[in-house]
Design a protein that fits this description.
single chain, alpha+beta, Aminopeptidase, Alpha-Beta Plaits, 6-stranded mixed β-sheet, 17 strands
Length: 369
């Protein structure tokens, strides 16, 4: 498989989340890519979610290794779907997040097939990760017995010198405030829902401090955080708002819990304000002394010719769906910048290095069988 060509081909598909036509074209391309390879390629479809691409060398529910990721991207201008290479970097939408590493997963599958490695290997790619991964949840629900001993997760992009061992738990909370309409000139005749919401928000901020690029970075970043993701309240300027709501994005460490968050929120509510947990998940926390993780780290350091550090990140990953089923998750990606931005790029050498690390790691696993 020509790794760089496949990456370029994938980027040319405008697979922005929800663009069903382009997503279908991309899936058809992958099916054709694996035609005659011996791999079983299945496009799993769901009534209320976008498709998931499921490629495997064994028709099974339990795998030794699975590569996990996504094919959808965030919106971009037309030019970003025309990849180009300059100074050892490939530019384009999805170069870093994460079509380059979807191609790496394909490369690993071809390697397993061609070398006839005695391991059960799968590639699972969703098509709506950028908007909540509903397809991943549908896929896991449809495969309740699906397990993988080890999951290779390349969707933690940015720096090949960092091996991620912890991701926080994303918890989205909706806060709702109820008031009473009145004319804006007679506020004493109404109850301002916007004000009620702000009162609750100020209490929440006392428990979860505000951080900004304009402020010094905290010494300890492995803490629970929250940001004001969305707020709505009021219809017209001269009417006291009778309803307001906000969506809050909490990121919880493994040292916290949703139950503890609920207890904190209960303390912050005021008369007329309620909340509900819109969605919750689980943190992904791996043992840095696990021998599979250390084996992978060793191969990575040999190929890069330098030491690799363990890292903790606040972002979430779809691999949590496998972590809760007992998988050892190895989170590692290539080097690049501009994720979700206009100048997105990936360093080509780092993509090839990730591919080499994966194939060496898979070969070592095969020897242990």
């Amino acid at each position: 498989m020509e790794l760089i060509k496949v990456i370029e081909d994938l980027i040319k598909f405008r697979t922005e989340t929800g663009n069903a036509q382009e997503i279908e074209k991309c899936l058809a391309y992958v099916e054709k890519l694996f035609s005659g390879s011996g791999a079983k390629v299945e496009v799993c479809r769901f009534e209320n979610a976008s498709p998931v691409l499921f490629i495997r060398n064994y028709d099974a529910d339990e795998f030794d290794v699975a590569c996990l990721g996504h094919l959808d991207v965030v919106p971009a201008d037309d030019e970003m779907f025309k990849p180009y290479i300059k100074n050892g970097k490939m530019f384009g939408r999805g170069t870093l997040d994460m079509k380059s590493f979807a191609a790496v997963a394909f490369n690993s599958m071809f390697y397993v097939l061609q070398e006839k490695l005695p391991i059960k290997f799968a590639v699972i790619l969703s098509t709506d990760e950028e908007k909540g991964s509903k397809s991943t949840h549908a896929f896991m629900d449809a495969h309740p017995k699906l397990k993988a001993k080890i999951v290779l997760d390349n969707d933690v992009g940015g720096d090949i010198r960092k091996l991620v061992t912890k991701c926080k738990n994303p918890v989205f909370v909706k806060i709702m405030a109820e008031g009473k309409e009145a004319h804006g000139s007679t506020p004493w005749e109404g109850i301002d829902a916007n004000e009620k919401l702000m009162m609750a928000w100020q209490k929440i901020r006392k428990l979860y401090p505000y951080f900004s690029k304009e402020m010094p970075e905290p010494k300890n970043k492995w803490i629970d955080t929250v940001h004001f993701a969305k707020i709505e309240g009021g219809d017209v300027a001269n009417v006291i708002s009778n309803h307001a709501e906000a969506l809050l994005d909490f990121r919880l460490t493994e040292n916290s819990s949703v139950d503890n968050l609920r207890r904190n929120l209960d303390k912050c509510m005021v008369d007329g304000v309620t909340y509900k947990i819109a969605s919750e998940s689980t943190p992904v926390v791996m043992d840095e002394k696990n021998h599979y993780i250390l084996d992978y780290k060793k191969f990575a350091e040999e190929i890069l010719g330098q030491r690799i550090e363990f890292e903790h990140i606040g972002g979430a990953t779809d691999s949590r769906s496998f972590a809760i089923r007992g998988s050892i998750v190895i989170m590692h990606s290539g080097t690049g910048d501009g994720m979700h931005a206009k100048g997105e790029f990936v360093e080509i050498d780092s993509v090839q290095q990730i591919a080499d690390i994966q194939t060496r790691f898979l070969s070592k696993l095969a020897l242990e069988k």
